[in-house]
Request: fold
Amino acid sequence: MLRLLTLSLLVLILPACASRRVDITSEPAGALVFLNDVEIGTTPCSAEFRYYGLYDVRLEKEGFEPLRTSADANAPFYEYPPLDLAAEASPFPVSTRIKWHFTLTPSAERTKSAEEVEKELVERAKELGQRLEPAP
Reply:
C-alpha cells in the first residue's frame, strides 16, 4: 500500500511534459515556410505547436510558384479524453511528431517581349542566309 501511495505521489509530482512538433519538408528543399502567417524557417524544418487541427501553410522559393494550402495536425489516440490526462501526468515524456511534405511547382517562364521575339527571328534568319548559296 505504501508503495502504491509513493508511486502515485511521484506521478503527480514529477509529470513529464508533452512535446508536440511538426516536421516540414519540401521538394525542392530550401523553401521558406509560414504556419498561420508566422515564419518558422526553411525546409527541412520543425516547429512546436500547441493545438491539433487545421493549419494554414505557405511555402515560398525563388523560381517556384508560391504554395498556399492547409494541413491537418491530427491528434493521436492518447490525446483524447480521458487518455490525455494520463499522458500529461505520465512521468515519461510523451512526444508527438507530425510530418508534412510539400512539392513545389516550378514557376512559368516569363513571356518574351515582342522586341525579344523579333530579335531572335532576325538572328535565325541571318544564320539561315549564311548557310544558303546565293541565288542565280
Notes: The radius of gyration is 29 Å. The domain at 15-108 is CATH 2.60.40 (Immunoglobulin-like).
